[in-house]
Structure formats: C-alpha cells, structure tokens
Structures
1.
Amino acid sequence: MRKLVAITLLLPLVLSVTSCSRIINKFTEDKNLTKVGDLWPDVPKMDGLTSSEAELPVYIHLLMRTTLNNLYRLNKEGEDKTPAKGDWAVFTTPKSADDVKDFYSNERMTSFGQWDPNQKSTCLDGKQHGFSGVACVFGKTVNNRGNGLLIVASHDEAKKQTNVFFVRVESDETANTNRPPSVPSAPRGEIKPIDWNAPYGIEKRPMPTGLDLDALLPKQVGPYTQTLLERADQRGVVPTSIEVDGASVYATYKASDKDIFVELGVSGSAGNAQSALGTAAGDTTDKFPSDPRFGSIGTEPSYLKVTNESGAFFAWTRGKYYFSASAKRGEADLDVFMQAFAF
C-alpha cells in the first residue's frame, strides 16, 4: 500500500474546535488517497459485494478525522500521532448497512486478519455524522507500522442498495522527520516537573483523578455554567462516563454571552497525553513558544497558550489527563474561566 503524508491519526483525545476546522479542511481538500480495485488480504470480503465507481463522499473524509485520524493504536506509547494516508475501495451490496456491520464484527476481523480485539463495538451510528448507515474502525500494528481501517456502509435509498467504502491508512516511519522543527514532538524520556510558574498556576493545582465527569468537568466553573456535554466521536450524544484511551469529551460553558469550549481526554500514559498537546500545537501554531509563559512540553505540567484573531486557546496536561479550553471572544474570557477551573 502506498504511504502518503497526512495529519494526525484517533487521538481519542480529539483536538479542540480551534484545530478541528483546520484538520477538516485539509482532509476534504486531499486528493491523494489511492483507489484500489479489491480488498487487502487481511480484510474479509462479504458475499454480494460488487465493485463500484462511486467517489468518496465528503462525510467519509470527516469520519477519518474522528476515527482513523484519532486512532491511538496507530502510535507507540509516548510518540506523536504519526501522520499517514493510504488506499480506499468501494463496493455496492443489496444487503443492509446493519448486515455489513454484523459481518465485520470484532471477532471476524480479529480471527481473519489479526486486527486488534475489542470488547466493545467499534462502530458508529451514521446519523451522528450526516448519513444513513454505520461506520466501523479497526486497528493493528504490523512490522512496527500502525494500520487503521475504516469501513462505512451507507444506504442509497434511490438505488435501493448499500454503498460500502473501505479506507485503509498505514503510519509512515518517516513521518516524524516531516514535522516542522519548531513544533516539538511528545517526549520519549522522563517527564520532568517544572520549576517555574505556569500560566494560571496550574502546577499548584490538585492532580485530576478517576473518570467521574462531574468531578473532571464541573457543572459550574466560576461564573460559567456547563450547558452542553457530548462525546467527541458522536456529537450530540451525552456521555455517561469517559474511558481511558477512549473518545474524548467536549463541554460548552456559558456566562451571559461568553462561551468557553472545553475538551477532556484521559490517556493510558502521560506520554500519550503529551502527544495530544503536541498535536494541538502543530494545528494551532507554526512555532511552539520558547517563552515558558506561553508553552512547555516534556514537563509536568505541559501547556500551550495561543491568542490570535480566532480567540484564545489554552491546552495543558496533568499526568495522563489532557485538557483544552478556547474562548472565541478572547483572552479575558479565557482568563476568568481558567482562574476558576479546578485542574
């Protein structure tokens, strides 16, 4: 499969709104995915699939942002979210999208192609992403390269058939050499505590613990009231919990006409949490700040503060936890929120 260069691969720690729009634009403009005529040897072919000339719809590119592009398993622990691109194929079938979902089960994918086992379904409801059908994602590592597979079954009511798209990406071992030197990679060695004052005094605050969303994202932060809580991979779906190395959670806070958008992700390691910060840095600034008043990575805590015409953005890590907060109206609104936030 051809290895191409692209943007970050499931940080279940999905990026903030500030960087999200840039990522989506980059994907929807990408013309370099290579179409192939058949499936790969490690992907089973469901009976009744017929090759199609359909093109990749825009919603598939957007899905790549929330599935393949955020797939943690495509990266070794503590590494950057390695850029990658790859190949795609499309077929039609008279069967339903649910039939496709049932065929491409975790059990079949694990036994047939040694894709990583999952205790829970890796499939998403297409209605949450603007189409009628389902999308399923799988990952594995082969010869030290991460592989991600997105399968989308979309119902075509006019033709009374289901379009089935397969998109496969593989991490490129040369990808890290393409990273701008001004944006540092996530640390691979020891994460050292800072010996200076970080923005908002976050280094003096208690470390977050557990997975209780009410504790991690309080209903009230100073004058700001939480008005919306949703899964990053299923916008509009209210999460009841957050999982380690699972989808991140978005929260919206309001105080009068002021809005703060917050993201929370919980990783299996401090290194992976720092990778989220490195990814956010690469998508919000061309040069990571050398001034410790505005940025530090490879430390505890790590953080990045950016203020520009789009508003004010602050991302930080506390151990295995990643947070970001953005204020469209600017730094003054962000300051009030951050001064009252617990972590």
2.
Amino acid sequence: MTARIARRTFLAGCTAGFALPAPGLAERTGIMCQFEPEEAAARKVLATAREAGFRRAQIFFPWDRATGSFLRGLPRWIASEDLRAEVLSAYVNCTAPGVVLMSTRAADFDRAIDFGAELGVRHMTAWTGGYGGDLMTADARNLAPEASDAIRRFLEPRLQRMADNHLALALETYITLTCPDAPSLRRLLDKLPQFVGAVLDPPNMTPIKRYGERDLVMREMLRVLEGRIGVVHLKDFRLAQDGRSYELPGPLAGEMNYELFLKGVEGLPGDTPVIAEHVKPEEFGATRRRLVAACKASHLP
C-alpha cells in the first residue's frame, strides 16, 4: 500500500500556484499558537498573534480535551483574525500510541486527519515517539529497529486517509526518541510515502556529544533530509548545566548559529511552513521583530 500511495499526486491541486513568487522568509514565518481547547483562550492567543504581525500559524491544543463544539468553532476564530493555519499539531506517539506524551491519543490522531481537512491545513505534525513515559527521558528500546518498525505499523493504515484529505505529515523527533537524529529519521522516511516528511528542528536532532560541532551537524541535517523536510521549527538551544541535556528557549535566545540556519531554510521550497515556537504570547511581537531583523542581517527577504 505504501508504494501505491507514494505514487499518488495528491498535491497536484496546488501546482497552479507554483508560478507565483514565493514570499520572503520573514513574511512567511508563522507562530506556534498553543492554547487550551476553549473559545476564550483560543481567541486571545490568535488575536495576539495577529497583533504581533504574524499571518501564519501552527495550531496546538490538548486533543484529549477538545470537544466537538470547540473544533467546529476554531476555523471561524482563526479566520476572524485573518490568520492562515498552515500546520495542525497532532502529537501522537507513533512508536507506542498507548503512551500518551502530549495529550494526543491514537483516536485523537484519527480525528485530526478529518479535522485538518476541515481546517484547510496542508500539514500535520506527530512525534516519532518512544516507549518512555516522558519526552525528555531516554529509553534504550527507542534505539532498536523494532521501534522504527512500530512507527510504520501505526502510520500505514492511516496513510490513504491522509492522502485522500490532501494532508502531508511531518514527523518530529528528539534526541531521546525513536529516530533521534537526521540519518535515522531519513532511513525511516525512505520506507514511507513522499508526503511523510520531517520537522527540521536542529536542537531536537543534535546529539549531546556533538553539541560542540553543532554547525556541522546542522549542515549534515539539511543535506541528509533534503527533499523530505515538511515543516521547519524555529527555536534555539544551549547545553544545560548538567552537560547531559538541553535548555530550549525561543528563537535567537540560545547558542544556535541562526545566520547559518536561516540561510538553509531560505533554500527550501517556498511553500514549506516555517514556525517559530517556544514563545509565550506576550513575547510574540518581540520575537517577530528579532526574526525580521535576523533575516535582514543575513540579507534574506
């Protein structure tokens, strides 16, 4: 089934827009809008995003508490702020769906496939996942080949529905999870249809032991994942005091080489969603100003 879906041209409806000039990186950068699944909270965050100058967003809420009325209202609230929802978060644990890492169960992921089409997004995100009970806790079982196979077994029955709904999936990973770096994630993606790609997020895929050569790791990441980057996340990182983990602040608030990163992102297809994350709503405006300035300093549009 995977091979058949890989040949599908389910994004063909978008090709008419390819002749239009792509917006510059600063213009097309969106923001992670994270809120509780109720109207007042959602509207407040969405309004803050618009006031800060963002026009694109990734939508994040706890799926295990989302009601039908909330899902019916959300597209309206997003449209009322003149925002475009580009990415829908559906962070199921693909390796071990019974281990809920971020308020998204297997049944919620199935709901998200249908809701994504209603919301008009073209991309969803999910965790590669793992057998541990926490995102930041390593588990030796995540490194076994069986863990990667489990991701395929979870996704394959759902791939046809995603293709029918014109949805691409971007798998996000972390150094503690299954497929913790770019090479291992690419090996998995090569066994899945083209519309399943990666979330490009250097802090998530830079091994602790290679933190000192993080620029080299980033270049390798861009090369290894070429052609399969579905979504880009902009945040930052620095080594924690214990030397065994990372602190993960918002963009331009750590030690990542942002000039190198932004130039790499600028080289991706112009329809690749670029989303700033790990940013509180009260920091939306300042974060956007810093990102616009960084793009200008790097001579990017």
